[in-house]
Amino acid sequence: MADKLLKSFLAISLSLTFLLLSIGVSNAEIMEVAREDRGRTIYLRPEIHWPPGTGPFGVVIVVNSSAGPKDAFLTVSIEPLTKAGIAVATLDTFTPRDVQATAVNQKLVSSTQMALDALFVAEALRRNSRVRPDKIALQGQSKGGVTALHAATEGWRQFVRTTKQPFDATIAMAPSCELQFRDPMLVSPLFALMGEKDDNTLPGPCVKLFERMKSAGQPVVWEVVEGANHAWSTYGSYLSPNLFSIRNCADEPYYYTRKGFESSLTGQVIAFRQIFSRCGARGYMIGGSHDKRPYVLERAVKWLKGMGW
């Protein structure tokens, strides 16, 4: 009996030691940010990962995708950014709302809610002495990419009537551009990466949108990654039949208006609640090799360093 108790004690002690070592190695801290959201107070808990040194550092807020706290980019973005001397604040916007994922039902949490969350976190980070207040970027993948894209646009800011300071740069990875703003003006430089073979968030509508922004003299750079699908894989992917996409409007993007969504082709306005039935589709390729993911992260870091991060 005594031997069993001793072994249990040693196992627990060893586990705690590994936990403490992990915390020390990650050089991370958790910050709490409260905000009102749809009639209740939610508590955002971004985890800040610091590079070596005392700073001040530029920061990238990495917001989750439809996968919520299981979004791989909340983890894989940390090392390349911190190695480049950039702090990372990973932001799970779903858990404070008791939501785990939205890939099947995108109505559970909106990209606008997520973008506002990130703006509140950015506001708090600017008060941190270890942060460069003029170098706070937002990065997101998929639904998070839509979040970053919208937060970069003047149209979105006017639509939600926010007066919070914009991000100093935005990185949109695999965003969906079927729902967009007519005004092509940006409030922060934008870098976008899209997969050539992405059958969820098709690159075509985004390329046309970015060309429109570029023609208006806006600071936008984009790249279509050859052979990559939505998971940044070029092989080994499989079809997940229930996942939701709005790709059926790829050839007819809709503009946000106060009255609903307006067709960019016909000018017809439909109610907000109709957009999912109008544009919705089920099933797209996921998983696989993720062999283009390191390249995408490398390109994001290179762009940020060129912007002074």
Key features?
309 residues, alpha/beta, Rossmann fold, 4-stranded mixed β-sheet, globular
In words, what does this structure look like?
With 309 residues, this protein is an alpha/beta fold. The chain has one domain (28-237, 289-306): Rossmann fold (3-Layer(aba) Sandwich). Helices cover 32% and strands 26% of the residues. The chain has 9 helices and 16 strands. The protein has an 8-stranded mixed beta sheet, sandwiched between helices. Strands 9-13-14-15 form a 4-stranded mixed beta sheet, with no helix packed on it. Strand 2 and strand 3 form a beta hairpin. The radius of gyration is 20 Å and the shape is globular.
In short:
With 309 residues, the protein is of the alpha/beta class.
The largest sheet has its strands arranged as 1-4-6-5-7-8-10-11
Q: What is the count of DSSP helices, taking H or I runs of 4+ residues?
A: 9
The major beta sheet can be summarized as:
8 strands, mixed
Order of helices and strands: HEEEEEHHEHEHHEEEHEEEEEHEH
Binned, the helix content reads: 25-40%
Which of globular, elongated, flat, extended, rod-shaped describes the shape? globular
